[in-house]
Amino acid sequence: MTDKGKDTLQKDHNGLTEEEFLAAYEPGDYLRPSVATDMVIFTVTDAEEENYRKLARKELRILLIKRGAHPYLGSWALPGGFVRPTETTEEAAARELREETGVDKVYLEQLYTFSNPDRDPRTWVMSCSYMALIDSSRVQIEAGDDAAQAAWFQTSFCKIEQEDRRELWELTLFHKETALRALIEKETGRPFSECKILDSGGLAFDHARILACGYERLRGKLSYTDLALHLMPEYFTLTQLQQVYEVVLDREFPAAAFRRKAAPMVTETDCYTENEGHRPSRLYRKNEG
User: Which of 30, 131, 220, 248 is most enclosed, with most CB atoms within 10 A?
Assistant: First the structure.
């Protein structure tokens, strides 16, 4: 008899074997939360420039959906949905990503599980959040079943005040005539998963906190990984890659220092930019080695 077979014949303090225990088990005896996935989907786009000879600025954008159903009807929210009984949370996140953006097989990373009992007015809903990084040239967005529309919002996240161990951060999101501004307070040295939302700025649920966690993860990993390359097309210039680092981290880098930093991450090609109104630049690609 296998060890597992022996274990199942053991009896508990009620005199039940494992088989007898499972046959009598009532899942409804315990409160169970619903489980959802919420997606922080980042991409980088070129800003529109009137002068085609001028190098286009980069803009960091996040996908939001305008809710077409209660609760938070008409508010902007992160794309996401409930996990189906046949799915893992990662499978649900990949499905939601595919349904909202039309892309698959992109960088996907779990952020944090948000489980505050009052985070959703409907019932107890835990959110297993994910971060995705997408090359904007691959994306075609579509609003999901509970969304009135979907849009890429230009975004920034910065600390605007610090007093003793208290920090005040502002999350801003812009799309056409819509402007959202959330205020977030956190203790210095503590993660954004523990922050307090002072003003949601029109974002639904606790999505301002989830967005802050996404920013924290993306910025943190850029210092020691090649994560930014998941935001790039197959071929790019080093200047374009530097712009992505600068727009995400909200600071400038000396060109020579950045090239040294980028050297281990990229491979030089024999291709150059064309028809961009300025001197052709050499193209690079991600180092697969």
Answer: 131
